[in-house]
Amino acid sequence: FVDHLYAALAQQGIQTYKDDETLPRGERIGPALLKAIEESRIALVVFSENYADSSWCLDELAHIMECVDTKGQIVEPVFYFVDPSDVRKQKGKYGKAFRKHKRENKHKVGSWRKALEKAGNLSGWVIDENSHEAKCIKEIVGTISSRLSSLFTNFNKDLIGIETRLQDLKSNLKMESGGVRIIGIWGVGGGGKTTLASAAYAEISHRFEAHCLLQNIREESNKHGLEKLQEKFLSLVLKTKDVLVGSEIEGRS
Questions:
Q1: pTM of the model
Q2: Which of 83, 98, 124, 162 is 20 to 30 A distant from 216 in Cα terms?
Q3: Catalytic hit among 60, 76, 129, 163
């Protein structure tokens, strides 16, 4: 499940860190993993039935929940064939795992319980035998993409005057009407046209199955020809690196 989820996130262009190593018993999680957790905007935690058996997983979770308090990190939990209340209250297999941890990791049990309780109280996705996993993955990726987009958009809103212009542009796009629309932004050089277009792209691009932002069209086409721009466009939209365009007419088709 995590492999398919990771592939779907990567295909959407979301930079995702997934740790594939296994920590030998008794060792602590390494600096690279701690750094990856701290530098992430969103932590996607997949709770499985045997999640609490791993002291490493619990160490990761404790650090993630610490980053929620210190860095404002967003946590999105996925309860994979496990009841959220088992996670929250350490019942069932989670309770059994903690009875073992009490003997072997006494000094960490308190922080682990606190992290599980906090994460178990968050709303997330519950996946069981009645779930369609492909549909769930698509929904998770859409939500993550939307959350990241809103973080970027909020950053743009610090720019003076951008919000009013952005709302005006979005109303002209008539997103709910269907069909295709082309919007031209006209004005003097340095007036903020590219900034406005970039802010609009950041806010609405996640609503489309495919999207791309091409800048400096005139300069790039003069330097490298339209074929290179067509290759870039098709690579981004098709999410592949192997697009080769032999001619402008071929790229257009």
A1: 0.66
A2: 162
A3: 60
